[in-house]
Amino acid sequence: MNKFNAGAGLLLLLIFSGCAARLHQASLVPGKPSAAPDYFCTWNVQGYVSSYAATREQRNAMTEQNLFGTGRYENWTGMFRKLHADLYFVLDDAWDVPLSGDAGYYGSLVPDAGRFPSLTGMSPEQRLASLSGRMKQIGWKGLGLWVCAQESPKYPIRDSVSYWKNGWNG
C-alpha cells in the first residue's frame, strides 16, 4: 500500500471514530432543573422584533400579544421549551409603562393593563399573580421583572423603605 492510501485510510478512520464518539455524547441540557437561579430576559427579543430601532420601539414590543400570541415574532414564552423548568422568564423594559411611554409609571411594580389586556380590572397584586401563574403554567420556573430603580411619581409613596419592600401600596 502506498503512503497516500495509508494516510487517507488513517484520516477516514479518525473522522469516523470522531463522528461515532459524538453520536454517544450526553446532552448538554440537564435532565432535572438546577437549584441555581437563572433567567431568560426579553430585551434582546424586544430589540429583534423592532429591528433594534430606537428604545421607544423596543419598549413598545413588550405586549401580551408578543409574549403569548401565535403570529410571526410572537410567542416569546414558547422559546427554549426544554429549558423552561430551569429559567425564570424576565419581562424587561416597559412592562409597567403605558404604551404612551409615560415614564412616570417606571418603578410602579404594576403590570400595565394596556400592554396586558387580560389583566384589566385586576388589582396590582392580582395582575402580578396572574402573570406569574401563567408563566408557571407554561413551564417556566417563574416570573422575573426588570424594575427601573426609581419610585414611581404616579403612585403615592409613604416611605422609601416600605415602597421597596412592599410595593407602592404597601
- Largest sheet at a glance? 3 strands, parallel
The general outline is globular
Secondary-structure-based class equals mainly alpha
- The number of helices is 6
- What would you report as the Rg, rounded to the nearest angstrom? 24 Å
Number of strands: 3
Mean pLDDT: 84
Low-confidence stretches: 9-14
Strand order across the biggest sheet? Answer: 1-2-3
The helicity comes to: 25-40%
Total domain modules: 1
- Give the strand content: 5-15%
Order of helices and strands: HEHHHEHEH
Termini separation (Å)? 85 Å
Description:
The structure is a single chain. A 3-stranded parallel sheet has the order 1-2-3. With 170 residues, it is mainly alpha-helical. The chain has one domain. The radius of gyration is 24 Å and the shape is globular. The longest helix is centred in the N-terminal third of the chain and has 21 residues.
Q: What would you say about this model in short?
A:
This protein has 170 residues and is mainly α. The protein has six helices and three strands, in the order H-E-H-H-H-E-H-E-H.
Topology (SSEs and partners):
Layout lengths: L2 H21 L15 E3 L1 H7 L5 H6 L3 H5 L19 E4 L32 H15 L3 E4 L14 H7 L4
Parallel strand pairs: 1-2, 2-3
Features of the shown structure:
170 residues, mainly alpha, three-stranded parallel beta sheet, 3 strands
